[in-house]
Amino acid sequence: MNTEFKFSAGVWNLHTGADPFGPPVRPERDFVEKCQILKKLGFDYVQLHDDDAVPMDVPASETAAYCKKLKTITSDIGLEVEFIAPRIWEDPRFADGGPTSNSAVSRQLALDRAKRSVDIANELGTDRIVLWPAREGTYIREAKDAITAYQRLLDYCNAILNFDPKVRILGEMKPNEPMDLMYLPSTGHMLALCYQTVDPSRTGVLIESAHSILLGLDPSDEMAYALFHKKLWGVHLNDQNGLKFDQDKTFGSVDLRRAFNQVDVLVRHDFGKNGEVVGLDVKAMRTQAHDISTKHLSNSKEVFERLVQLAVSIDRQEWQSYVDAQDYEALEMFLLRHFLKI
Ligand SMILES: [Mn+2]
Fold this sequence. Notes:
binds manganese (II) ion, alpha/beta, TIM Barrel, globular, 8-stranded parallel beta sheet, 10 strands, two-stranded antiparallel sheet
């Protein structure tokens, strides 16, 4: 059992409250302030997109120097960089996706960004590249050939692995949004692709709770499946109220029992003992005032830590006795009584 965890969050988790239906409602914070807030809240790592670390208008010849300055800032504050994620969905040239775009120019651009991300990751001291294939799907299914798309995604992963002998790819899968349908919607899809790559030992997954829920799956089962393959190298814990847009709600805020099951599988299977970090990918509500728009992070962390205590304190023998007797009604009430002690 592992009960010692390191926490991380993305710079995007301290945000202005803008959504597809309205502009910012809070001022933007600069990078230093975001890192200081994370540190103050007890976080150990920060997560970055490639252009969060180094803006795209910084010339390639200055990337290393830019990273050195950034690393000094994060080190002085006391944070490490968990991963770099190439943002291959925002640029208008990625409107049809990156690796699976029907435009050869866009596919090359996506690869260039991945290689640039690897360079940045090396400079910032992480071997983790998170690949969220946000637009690697279709608006209409007839727009792309699916088998061609799978091959292009495999080629993309191989090109990254071949570019650097140490870098690891963590696929963060999601079934929909912004696209209608994705080509690799689930952990299982990505794991199957991992084994086809030139180096399966350097390909794994990062699982976001909300993405599993959007698939109609239980996040703890998705995590368990990746743990079974020894490929759960990151998590984005949050919550999600039903099948709708990706909500990134405070961890445990919708379904505390579902959150407990995620914590329990991480605790029981030593997540974190090989450097894995508990990422909290949560968003503040649009109604939250600027000066108190960090509670979603501190609340998620508190919920996680209290659920760890529940996982530690629960009577495993009594739990097992109900399993052995196949008395799942009694097991259910035993669990509910334990949760009601929170
Ligand atoms: Mn999300």
